[in-house]
Amino acid sequence: MSPSALRSARRPGATPLTSARLLGSGLALAPALVVGALALTASPSAALAAPPTAEDFQITYFLTDEYGNRSRQMQPQDMQQFFGQARCECGQSIIARVSLAGNSIDSEQIQVFVGQQCSMAQALMGIGQFAPCAQLVATLPQSFQTGPEYLFDPVWLAYGAEAEQSIATAVPVGGCEAAEGQGGIWVCSGVNECNTGQFFIDGTVNINTQNSDTPQGINFDYIPPLTPPANFSVEAGDSAVEITWDNQATADVAGYRVLCADENGEPIDNGVNPPNPAVDDLVLGQIYFNQANLCPGGPFGPDYDPEGGGTTDGGETETDTGTEDTTDTGTDTTDGTDTTDGTDTTDGTDTTDGTDTTDGTDTTDGTDTSDCELGTQGCECADGDVCDDGLLCLDGSCVDEGCSGNDGELGCFCDNGECNGDLVCDGQFCVEPPDPIFDLDWSYVCSEHLANTTQRARIEGLENGKTYQFLVVAYDAYGNPVHPDAALTATPVPTNGLWEECENQPGVCGEGWTCSVVEAPDQNGQGWLLGLFGLLGLTGLSGLALRRRRRA
To answer: 3-state SS string over 388-448?
Structure first.
């Protein structure tokens, strides 16, 4: 008799049948007891231990705030479009509560994973499209009776683990980019079944969407719209401008916002209230998110400071408290998923910003020489190559002659990733910092949400004679933004229509806003036109003919 079976026999509520089966393994039973046991065997109410099914467990997902604390249960709409790229970059963790609803399941070890396509990844370990999912916990079924909660970063929805699967030490194979799909909690029972990818909960089972037409896991999208609008233009008017653009496709765009800055790069006040949603607000597809406005203080965690640099020791502290906050810390320790805290150490995944070193392709900025013209500044060169006048070939790139020994200066190589003064390191070279409007801070928003079919926007409340910058930001339902590389500029000016001209030229306009008929044309030959307007006034059509021209 196994110890686990014995514990099952002795637990409160164990049926006489269970005890009888245990006792029957080599022990003599009194005839009356045997008859009683046989009678109970026929009883339909007798509880038999059986392999677990999805009906035996309940999965519930919760959102967290910027400090890693549980804030609210995820709604179906959250499941569909909450986790965009900025949520992943900011490390806005997800809490999953795993509860045992049944009482009569086998006592084999239960393993809980998080990710997408875990079954396929586990069955084709190392050779399939998907990497093995991260493991939140491996423990006995009774550990789930108290409904322990597990904390994990959104990156795990998209990517599996490089090698070690325990989430405390796992490193994801990707970062917060180039991925979209659906992930969630996967559960299997028994070592053999788990190793061969036989999961009885597949990522779509949860309380959050059980009443929906189509139960689903947590959708994620870490890709901005691929077909943003183009051909932007701006026309200045009186205390206003009108911006137009061409829509290339609308399927991946939920809407637009216009951002405005004055000539000094500062936000303006044109009467539009900039958005300022809480980090756990329901996403309605009417605003964009990026790190600058969602987590300006750095990755979320218990020490998060929106005015500062975020948490000091990365994800570790972040999750430690996170799990503490998530209730039942004790049960969390049943997993060793205290190690799920580790997930936040997967902020360590932000260390997979090592994958961000796939951005390392970005580091190939310098070598993004595919678009480079031979000999021009910043393009690749080899010994003996000739760079344009005023440039020299230094460390494999054409740079300003004054750059020799002047790393960190404008146009020169970055000095270990740093530049002097306000300059910023872009790829390998120091460049002027971009205009602040390109940070996409919400304080620059100067329009309401515009529907995805919109092709023009009128911005009012501007001051004539002042130059402004305008940037149109397109975003998808998750809030992933995309914008053109350059801002538009325009200077509103007073625009006089015919009525204003009448006011400015006494004697031209008659009583009741009808024009006087002039006997002879003036030097510009316009008298006949004024005569015609006078005639139209007599026929009662002057209101139509002299309607004030619409301002831009």
So the answer is: CCCEEEECCEEEEHHHCCCCCCCCCECECCECCCCCEEECCEEECCCCHHHHCCHHHECCC
Q: Is the dihedral of CA 436, 442, 443, 446 positive or negative?
A: positive
CA–CA dist 381, 372 (Å, integer): 11
pLDDT at 124: 86
What is d(CA 401, CA 412) in angstroms, rounded to the nearest whole number? 9
- On whether the CB atoms of residues 420 and 234 are closer than 8 A, the answer is no
Tokens of 320: 């430690």
Q: How far is CA 458 from the centre of its chain?
A: 28
- Nearest by Cα to 237 from 500, 447, 548, 496: 496
CA atoms of 154 and 93, how far apart (whole Å): 6
3-state SS track over 521-535 = CCCCCCHHHHHHHHH
**Closest listed residue to residue 327, CA positions, set 110, 113, 95, 79:** 95
What are the C-alpha distances in Å from 243 to residues 237, 447, 457, 483? 11, 12, 5, 14
Cα dihedral sign for 81, 86, 92, 97? positive
Q: Among all chains, which residue has been given the structure tokens 């678009």? A: 371
* 8 Å CB contact between 442 and 281: no
Which letter, b or e, does each residue of 148-181 get, where b requires 16 or more Cβ atoms within 10 Å of its Cβ?
bbbbbbbbbbbbbbeeebbbbebbbbbbbbebee
Q: Is 488 helix (H, G, I), strand (E, B) or coil?
A: strand
**How many residues can be counted in the chain?**
552
Q: Could you tell me the CA-to-CA distances from 430 to 127, 270, 371, 374, 398 in Å, in that order?
A: 42, 35, 19, 20, 14
The identity of residue 121, as a single letter, is: A
Determine the Cα–Cα distance for residues 233 and 456; give it in Å rounded to an integer: 9
pTM of the entire structure? Answer: 0.68
Instruction: To the nearest 10°, report the CA torsion of 25, 26, 30, 35.
Output: 40
Burial class, 270, CB count within 10 angstroms (exposed 0-12 / middle 13-18 / buried 19+): middle
User: Distances from the Cα of 109 to the Cαs of 19, 141, 263, 329, in angstroms?
Assistant: 22, 7, 65, 21
CA dist 317 to 36, 72, 338, 345, 348, Å?
57, 22, 12, 8, 11
**In which residue are the tokens 């006011």 written?**
503
Q: What is the chain's alpha carbon radius of gyration, rounded to the nearest angstrom?
A: 34
CA dihedral sign of residues 446, 447, 452, 457: negative
CA gap 365, 279 in Å, rounded: 33
Regions of the chain with pLDDT less than 50:
1-46, 310-370, 515-521, 525, 527-552
DSSP secondary structure letters along 186-254:
EEEESHHHHHTT-EEEES---STTTTSSS---EEEE----SS--EEEEEEE-SSEEEEEEE-S--TT--
3-class DSSP state of 172: strand
Residue whose C-alpha is closest to residue 140's, from 115, 170, 105 = 105
